[in-house]
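User: Need the bound-state model for D-mannonic acid:
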Amino acid sequence: MKIPIQLQQQNLEELGSRMPVPTYNRTDNKIGVVHVGVGGFHRAHQAYYLHQLRQMGEASEWGICGIGLRESDTKLRDSLKTQDHLYTLMVKHPNGKIEPEVIGSIVDFEMGTTNKERVISHMANADTKIVSLTITEGGYNFNPTTGKFNFDNPDIQHELHHPQDPITIYGFLTAALKRRRDAGLPSFTILSCDNIEHNGDMTRKMLLAFAKVQDADLAKWIAQEVCFPNSMVDRITPVTTKADIDTLQNYGVHDAWPVTCEPFIQWVIEDKFSNGRPAFEKVGVQFVPDVGPYEKMKLRLLNAGHSVLGILGAIHGHTTINACVQDEVFANYLRAFLDKEATPILGDIKGINLENYKDSLLERFANPNIKDSVSRICSESSAKLPKFLITTIHENLAKGGSIKFATLVLAAWCYYSDKEADQHGRPLEIIDVLQSELHQAAAKTKNDPLAFIKQENLFGNLAKNNRFVEVYTFMLQELYKNNRITKMMQSII
Ligand code: CS2
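Assistant: Bound-state model below.
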């Protein structure tokens, strides 16, 4: 066994005999991208695309500075700092093969909690041409039912009245954009990489709502100058485990926080940038005039499919997504949901064969080497389900389509939130910013079967729709009668 080498710039040459490492100069490049929300996904996706470009000898002016806006990002900042911002990406193939590669495209990291001025000045720097975001579906501060900006958030109130002391993404963006405008610099592009339909349009709408109240002149400048391309992003990126860190030691590198992912990767972007962009097309990124159909396809099939497996799987006692799809009942249920409820609302998508896309989803979910946890999928369901699944129920209700496959997921979500346990009584944690609201609403189910669904911020007017209410209450009763979830799934298929 090789003695593991500490991942650091000065050790790259030695490491190069063990795995691919960056061959480009990382010390004198410019920061062209400031990225907010550096989780596993960003490191497996955008940072990887830029790394590939750099390996081709391109894009030296497109170094990435990562930004953390939450206290909890400090741990990653510290880990990356001791490794000169290098990290290992471990691509895990279904046949068990692991391909580790050291990624070097991130060159700096700042915390918005403690170093606000450094964050603003990075964004406002003339070299910065793109500010990209993976701040999660819940990070955009809007009401999923009304689509309106949430001005009740105390952090938002604070930064509206103290523009020099930003806290959320909106405060940082306006502070930096104001500085650019005042200095006569062109705006940067704001590139959302989160799983939200029309993610760019939505970011624009939210930022303008905020800016109009904070500084109306600035809002006008933003409306004219800033481009917000919509984009569809895709790569399954599980949570890094201790076992991954240990496995990597066997490959001869010590990395405090590597990232694992599947081989599949996709990025479809609208080609509207305020101030230039890297030649991403050279590494397989697709540029299209309208990303809408691709986004909708991905969110309503892949992400919704994940949630269907995750929530039903959790209640049953499965702990990974691959265990779910290896279970025939779950695989059949998922396919039936995709075919009968999600596909009918998608329409034709130019250049895409939806049957092949769905086949490939099932294959990707079945990758036994990925071990994507059901708990990751269920986490923050209150931000995910309205966009991935509940909207599909609304659309099917409007056109008389099937709703039963998705409705069982909502009944199971209520059960999960109420019992905080699976059907065998084993504890299930609710990892969600709305944890206590979800639990409290679900706990009223015994007296009012619709209590959970009456949360209008999540479900809109579903509790007032007779057809939905009938299907939902029947399923809920069956579930609470201790009917096994798999038995119910079989009877629905
Ligand atoms: C998942 C996504 O968070 C979730 O529930 O569906 O993280 C999914 O793995 C990615 O969007 C894949 O591109």
